[in-house]
């Protein structure tokens, strides 16, 4: 499958709609797109995309993070839904247009889904934490340095497909750290999975300047660890159960029993593969270092060689 077809298939999957999921009380749709809509949350008989909640200007986080919709109370949401029921969307003309352009001279109102289709801008990291939104006409535009266009790498450093046109637009982002262009969608997905602790420029590895610029131009950088660090994916690499490798292990609880004092298991300081209970090798209870029978002669020979060379 070509990379273009892969991206199309991913987009279709991410925008999957299901009759089994209830509709969002704000946008009226049940699209499944965690990158652009946030997760669909269901609480107290209500369901809403998390980003629809964030960018509803009449909502405030009046509860704790463990209450209702991450602190946005169901009672407050019902009031916001009633307010939005009187407002028509500029694009689809349906009622419920809860979001409005924050430019004071603009009267554009829209559902989050409609706004995204028409290149709306949403600031996740506004210093005032007011989560402002803008229509395409009034969205912030990146300022770029003048560079030799012939020398510019037009290949997105994430998907390795050409960025067209290589200029500020709702679909592109410019990296101030190395002057490269990337697809906005690619950066948004990368930020979602990397989180604030791992996100960096995929081209030059710059962290501070890159992240600051991406946040300023509408990329959500979650305050959590990377998605690949979650769960127990790599736990087996850290958990290693040693068992006594002495031929006649004295433990009645089994070779892998690791207890206190004489039944503590010590791993070989040489190979790390063999181990012994302190009692099975007749060691002192306070012994901290031990070498197996295979590693002892090797270490002894190394010491002899060092002595000869000196």
UniProtKB/TrEMBL annotation:
One of its GO terms (cellular component) is nucleus. SMART domains: PHD, RING. Residues 156-205 form the RING-type domain. InterPro entries: EPHD, PHD-type_Zinc_Finger, PHD_PHF7/G2E3-like, Znf_FYVE_PHD, Znf_PHD, Znf_RING, Znf_RING/FYVE/PHD. It holds the Pfam family PHD_G2E3. SUPFAM superfamilies: FYVE/PHD zinc finger (SSF57903), RING/U-box (SSF57850). Residues 1-20 are annotated as: Disordered. It comes from the Eukaryota. This is PHD finger protein 7.
């Amino acid at each position: 499958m070509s990379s273009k077809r892969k991206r199309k298939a991913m987009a279709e999957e991410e925008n999957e709609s299901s009759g089994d999921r209830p509709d969002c009380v704000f946008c009226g749709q049940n699209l499944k797109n965690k990158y652009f809509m946030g997760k669909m949350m269901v609480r107290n008989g209500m369901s809403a995309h998390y980003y629809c909640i964030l960018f509803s200007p009449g909502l405030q986080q009046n509860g704790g993070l463990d209450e209702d919709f991450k602190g946005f109370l169901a009672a407050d949401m019902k009031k916001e839904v009633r307010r939005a029921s009187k407002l028509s969307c500029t694009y689809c003309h349906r009622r419920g247009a809860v979001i409005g352009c924050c430019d004071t001279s603009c009267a554009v109102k829209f559902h989050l889904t409609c706004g995204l289709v028409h290149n709306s801008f949403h600031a996740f990291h506004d210093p005032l934490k007011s989560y402002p939104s803008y229509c395409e006409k009034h969205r912030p535009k990146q300022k770029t340095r003048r560079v030799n266009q012939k020398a510019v790498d037009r290949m997105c450093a994430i998907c390795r497909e050409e960025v067209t046109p290589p200029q500020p637009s709702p679909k592109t982002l410019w990296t101030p750290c190395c002057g490269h262009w990337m697809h906005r969608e690619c950066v948004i997905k990368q930020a979602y999975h990397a989180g604030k602790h791992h996100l960096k420029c995929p081209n030059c590895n710059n962290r501070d300047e890159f992240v600051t610029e991406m946040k300023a131009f509408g990329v959500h950088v979650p305050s959590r660890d990377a998605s690949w660090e979650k769960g127990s994916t790599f736990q087996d690499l850290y958990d290693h159960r040693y068992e006594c490798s002495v031929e006649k292990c004295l433990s009645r609880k089994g070779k892998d029993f690791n207890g206190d004092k004489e039944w503590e298991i010590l791993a070989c300081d040489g190979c790390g593969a063999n181990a012994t209970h302190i009692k099975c090798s007749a060691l002192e209870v306070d012994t901290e270092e031990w070498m197996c029978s295979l590693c002892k002669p090797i270490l002894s020979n190394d010491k002899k060689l060092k002595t000869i060379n000196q």
